[in-house]
Amino acid sequence: MNFADIRFWGILAVSLLAILMIRVVAVKVIRPDPGHYDRAALAIMGLVLLGCVSLLSLGIFAAVSVTTYLGLHFILKIDSSLKRRGRWLWLLIPLQLSPLLFYKYGGFLGNEILGLKSHSFTNVIIPVGISFYTFQLISFAVDTLKRSHPLPSPLNTLNFAGFFPQIVAGPIERREALLPQLEKFRFCWDKKAIEIGLTWMILGLFFKRCLADNLALMPLVHSGTNPFLVWLDTVMFGFRIYFDFCGYSLMALGVAYCLGIKLTLNFRSPYCSLNIADFWRRWHVTLSTWFRDYVYFPLGGSRVGFWAANLLIVFVISGIWHGAGWNFLIWGGLHGLFLLVYRLPVKVSLPRVAAFLLTHVCVFLAWLCFYETDTGELFRKLGLLLNPASYDTFALRAFFSACLSPNGLDIFGILGMIACVISLEMWSLRKRGEPYRFLRTRGAAVILIFLTVVLSPISNNDFIYFAF
Amino acid sequence: MVRASFSDRHPAGMITIACIAVLGAMIFSYYQTTQWNPEMRFWKAAAAAKSEWIESLRKSEDVPVIICLGGSATGFGIDAEYADRELGCRLANFGLHAGMGADALTGFALSKAKKGDTLLVMLEPELLADSEMETALGVQFSHAIGQREILNWDGATSGFHLANLRPGASNIFGVIGKKLMGRPMYRYQLRDMRESGLLTTPVTSGLVARSSSPNSLSESAKKLLKDLVSVARERKLNVIYGLPWVYSDEENANLVRKDRLKFLNDVEKIMPVIYEDDFGVSTEKINFRDSPQHLSETAARTRTERLVKLLQEKFAVR
Questions:
Q1: Nearest-CA neighbor of B190 among B200, B182, B177, B181?
Q2: Which helix (H) or strand (E) holds B94?
Q3: What is the pLDDT of residues A17-46, one digit of tens each?
Q4: Separation CA B62–CA B249 (nearest Å)
Q5: Domain ranges of chain A
Q6: In terms of CB atoms within 10 Å, which of A276, A283, B106, B195 comes out highest?
Q7: Residue tagged active-site, from A73, A149, A222, A322
Q8: From A456, which residue of chain B is nearest by alpha-carbon distance?
Q9: Per-residue pLDDT tens over the stretch B121-135
Q10: CATH topology of domain B47-133+144-152+186-314
Q11: Catalytic residue flag (residue A322)
Q12: Are B137 and B144 in contact (CB under 8 A)?
């Protein structure tokens, strides 16, 4: 379900056309409840679109959804005590997590932890969206059992679990935010919603195709011995992952808007943050809040004496969620550490510019751990970046000569556009308190469309977060 | 005073605005890729020169011509003027940019071929090992020279072109950067091209010896060559494959030769091939210019002479 791929829009258009044509015929012949028909059609469309991505993905999604629904149905039927219902989660959550653990972490657990060195895990393809819908269904199960919400109909549960704009890469929605909207879902031509949705889609497509995909074409091949070039690689990766994932999220938001469903804004201009806590309030918002509500708070949150340990545990798990590898673990741990330092009672007041720079040095340094999967190479590069002696004039000269090469011109052209985009994000936040506001105006839309058509590369890259 | 966002003020016009912006961008992209791009302007002029040369050969005497088709390795490697003047052999150098892809390069040569001509296919092994036969640059070239049909020579309808008629960031920022820094807009100049279409360059930097070479055809290349044989049979053309020369160092030369022998064996299953001494692998750095497949003018003459001799001896092509 790649929004940047023309085939997705083709399948979507054909599906919508089929749904409308069948509805016209069905209304005359069998007179179904139109709301029920629309919700069923939405569910089928989601399954068809997921099936077009891969049948394995569809199968695993169906297995996790059915397990969740039947599990909840069984628990609610046999146990009326709110307290005891909570205990059933110890059985249900591992069941929900088992496909995720097998597909995503089987290789890592088998080869790295148990030392099996088995090749059978290396070729395992991770079903798309597994991390996202698994987490969404876990929160659904917890909210249903712990907050004593009634179990919705199987059709509404299926729509909640598999709402196609967000199934493969989020946002990870909560029951109370998404389910009521889906229960009232109807296919209708809401011009205003479509036009607003369009502005989000234009911005998302620009982020993905024009910025992220162009950054993806500039491979991270720079000398690992030059700290300036390693920083450049790291900065490019940090921007790439942001524009890639945020682009997807904004397109998901736009597509959902066109269908009359409001999703959560998953990114809120994270590169405008002035401290690390602010960064995490703006980056992958729905995952951060998920970890806060379903891991950090149940561990005791910040009210207990060992809050620092809780914080580190949450961030290490968040790192592991992103991928099975030591580098992700280090990435999570590093962010946990940064946040820990930020929350220490001793406060140092920094000027805005210094706070901005310090935050981003930390964030980009951590990105190095995200993209460098070779642990030995990662530590070598970290050592290089943290060693003041490596920043010599020779390295600086090599950096400038690389920048003035034909590839360097491309990189700086893209980085120049990124600087403009981030400035506009900052301006939107300062003037309107709303991220992306000025990037969604009429004038901006025209410019963004023009730039996307002209500058986006011919080749199409998958979204980075599809791998998670 | 901050203006309200468009979505608040005029929601109704957004789709129209988006359509107009897409249309405007597509028109700009079309002209940038096919008319204004300095690289395309060079190759368009090169194609015109090559077409003029073959027309001039046909005007002087209506006898078959040997059309050498390929990427820039052919462009730098065949001196048709020398062959005509010194060897009495009527050659046409149809070497263009390898980035145009095997499909467009073959289609362009076929568009100028006539009954009885010989197509000497000199497509680089790298092109024929690739799975993509049609490239964006090839599509842009076909539009630039106003011959869109060169992509349909095999009878297959060509795919979705609109997406390929876009310049991309690399092209736009490259052009802006070169303008700002006062650099030449393209690495080759028209003044360095001979009347017959032979490309030359004084630049020798960037020459790196090859240590390996593709040793088999991709499935799509096999299909392309089979289609070419079939089209050639219908149009009564001869088809022969010959490898362009390549530079390698003493250490790796034999490995490259082995790879190229395997590659030629693979091609021979589809069409006749020319086996040259050393399979076209040279360890003489002086024979090459800015790339391991771009020959110097002197080497191009030597290569042309040897090629003509082989064609006359082994294939009775005159």
A1: B200
A2: strand B91-95
A3: 988 888 888 877 877 777 888 899 999 999
A4: 44
A5: 36-187, 192-467
A6: B106
A7: A322
A8: B168
A9: 999 999 999 988 989
A10: Rossmann fold (3.40.50)
A11: yes
A12: no
